[in-house]
Amino acid sequence: MTAYWISIYKDVLDEAKLAAYAELAGPALTDAGGRFIARGFPELTYESGEATRTVLIEFASVEAARAAHDGPAYQEALAALDGGAVRDIRIVPAVE
């Protein structure tokens, strides 16, 4: 079943580290089967919405998303981020 990796950036502490992370993370996640669906700041927010950077990536399954996260290429990207951002990352199965 399809799954979605949702990253919400609560705070960016170091733009250079974030850029180094992004350079590695994008290819790592697409090579692991991820497809970027949305990326950026919201155009609109409602209720308790916050104008925080959000990334949505589609994977074939929860297992595929987990494998992408735990794989060596993405772990290298996380090492480059090195505390440069505070994020909330969750993997959610699709409704099918």
Give the helix/strand layout.
Layout: E1 3-12, H1 15-31, E2 35-40, E3 54-59, H2 62-70, H3 72-81, E4 85-93
Antiparallel strand pairs: 1-3, 1-4, 2-3
Helix pairs in contact: 1-3
Would you write up a description of this structure?
- With 96 residues, the chain is of the alpha+beta class.
- It has a single domain (3-93), classed as Alpha-Beta Plaits (2-Layer Sandwich), CATH 3.30.70.100.
- The chain has three helices and four strands; from the N terminus they run E-H-E-E-H-H-E.
- It has a four-stranded antiparallel sheet.
- The longest helix has 17 residues, at 15-31.
- The termini are close together.
- The model has no long low-confidence stretch (mean pLDDT 97).
H/E element order: EHEEHHE
Percent in helix:
25-40%
Structural class: alpha+beta
Strand content: 25-35%
Number of helices, where a helix is a run of at least 4 consecutive DSSP H or I residues = 3
Main sheet characteristics: 4 strands, antiparallel
Measured between the Cα atoms of the first and last residue, the distance is 7 Å
* Overall shape: flat
Largest sheet strand order: 2-3-1-4
From the 3D coordinates, which CATH architecture would you assign?
Answer: 2-Layer Sandwich
Task: Give me some keywords for this one.
96 residues; alpha+beta; 3 helices; 4 strands; Alpha-Beta Plaits; flat; four-stranded antiparallel β-sheet
Give the structure's gist in a few sentences.
By secondary structure, the protein is an alpha+beta fold.
